[in-house]
Amino acid sequence: IVESTDEYRFVERLIPPSRVPEPPKHQQYPTPSGWTPPSGTPLTAAAPTVRRFSHAQHSVYTDITHGNQKMTVIRKISGDIWALEQEVKSYLTQVTGKCPPTQVNEVTMSIRVKGYYDTELKAWLTEKGF
Q1: Where is the chain membrane-spanning (predicted)?
Q2: What is the mean pLDDT of residues 86-96?
């Protein structure tokens, strides 16, 4: 049996990484795809934050319930969820001219907003530095 370490590099390519790599550094932001990195400013413990998921995208999703009820869901919230809900309501009232109904789930740390506002909320979260 001959042991060759030269071919082990092919095996290493098949092994998934043990952690999510840092996003690459770009020369200008936003990138052509519209992505911007989260700000590195430290926040207080009580300040609400919305974490990004593994691909450095915001955790804002659209959902349809009961066949036709359109919802936007903000997940991975930490900190004061009620303060974030008030900020979301005031922002959407400013953008749309009406106050959409919201639902806060403290167990799953998520906020549901009636209607599709995913693009507006993602832009707002990017602007806030999340």
Answers
A1: none
A2: 94
